[in-house]
Amino acid sequence: MDALSYKTQFLNNEEAKEGKKWILVDAKNQILGRVSSEISKILRGKKKPTFTPHIDCGDNVIVINAEKVKLTGKKMTNKIYVRYTGYPGGQRFATPRTLLEKDPRKLIEKAVRGMLPKTRLGRECFRNLYVYAGETHPHQAQTPQQISL
Q1: How far apart are the first and last CA of the chain?
Q2: Which residue of 5, 59, 115, 143 lies most exposed, with the fewest beta carbons within 10 A?
Q3: What does the pLDDT look like over 102-113, one tens digit per residue?
Q4: What angle separates helix 105-115 from helix 32-44, to the nearest 10 degrees?
Q5: Which residues of 41-61 are buried (b: 16+ CB within 10 A; e: fewer)?
């Protein structure tokens, strides 16, 4: 048995960029957490056999119908997103219902961002996510491959 044939192969940045694809995900009637976890895996590149932990080897993901995503139980009214403005008394609270009314894209973006690493690599992976509230998107030229989750 040759020990060199069993070495782990890692990608470099150029090889990872060549292998990027465009994936289209329809979030209509999908549960937020389940669709977000699958999106984060695709963005990170965990579903590829050439996964490299320190390289952005994931695909670009386009999410359509973000306003039609579902939450189970009473999460639509009872779940609270907390943010802080930086000023005294500047703590702000929001529910998923108010986020959907203001900007439906934010709900999926917050869920996916929370599932990615909190590092430079996680921020770089998040840049490959494109969320749209309606059916249309401006990425027809990239010929995205639609997948069902």
Answers
A1: 41
A2: 5
A3: 999 999 999 999
A4: 60
A5: bbbbbeebeebbeebbbbbbb
